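Quarterly update from the structural biology core.
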Amino acid sequence: MRRVTGFTEARKLLSRKNYWESFTSSPGGAGQASSKEASAWEVVQQIVADVRFRGDEALRDYSRKLDGVELDSLEVSREKIVAARDAVDGKLLEALELAAGRIRDFHSAVYRAVSGTEERPFITGEHLGQQVRPLDRVGLYVPGGTAAYPSTVLMMAVPARVAGVREIIMVSPPSAENGEIPAAALAAAAIAGVDRIFKVGGAQAVAALAFGTASVPRVDKICGPGNIFVTLAKKMVYGAVAIDGLEGPSEAVIVADESANPALCAADLLAQAEHDSLASVILITTSPELADEVEREVAKQLAGMKRRSIAAQAADAGMLLVVENLEEAIELVNLFAPEHLSLMVPRAASLVGKIRNAGCIFVGENSPIVLGDYIAGPSHVLPTGGSARFASPLGIGDFLKVSNVIALDETAMRELGQAAVVIAEAEGLEGHARAVEARLQGENNG
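Predicted structure, tokenized:
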């Protein structure tokens, strides 16, 4: 891990290693991508256009070429979903049901707080509010192919169901071994109440959800993390459909002092490092001695990891930043805007109010990031790449839409009308002014 001492040098280092920066403009625009990145963009453009034109035929072709799978049917049958739930290990099923219950409870509490109509009933003759309604149909992208992520299914589908989404569509790449989605992911989908599941992954799955095919229905919004091709496809189809954001490699920042347990710090960093060789793992500490101990612990714990090759690459690119005090540490956190932030200091709760930019804040030694990944309750689909500066975790709000409501009686209309006429005339919009004047003059336009 790279070690830097001093706030100024640390600030330079964190300003900012943004994974998505070069991908947020198409080739030829400002911030032109490299040839490799441009190639990825062009590949995705071709895939999206092909799926839009050829539909299911293109999906089958890409499953054959990219996933090595020959699909008889794109959709997973209800019988297979039910069978998957019965087939998974009993302890896993129990854990998934526990997680689903906690996720449901958390998001139900949030839903009660944000749903309904916000009114101003104290104004006589004037009703101003907002009507909150769920989206009709959403598409959930669940990574797969070489691994199963039942936790991601729960973290997206349960909030969508709590929000009242009418139809939840899930897509996930099939395994090259048997052409099927892992049973654990299917079981989680059954627990969460997913309506339909398709064995399609990659940019082609995003295109199918955005534009629809004979088999895959078009959705209103696409949510979920994926590789670079999935994320570029989400960016490309935005506008035809809504998206939750551009999720990149995992990030973990730990703020710690001399009281922190170095073994736990190292374990938490490596837990995120094993996700992806491009994961960002960072320790910010006021203790040079802790930095030394964590570095030794990382090397020690790496030796016994099954995903050592992946975690080692992320750890090698990780950072040990030594600063003077916690105020400097918090400033660096707000600058970097991490996906996961762990506060491993005494009285950690007192620092929460100072955090402006973070996807999820884990307070104290007993709140490890891994519990947030799986079972605490809030969704683990979080903003990455610095987007925590302006974006929020996946939640109820991602599955709701709002209509403003304006209901005025004649008295209120007359009190407001003349001011509206003045503004309309200032903007040169004569028709606007006349539409109000006709009412103020008592004319009948019927």
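Confidence is low (pLDDT under 50) at residues 24-34.
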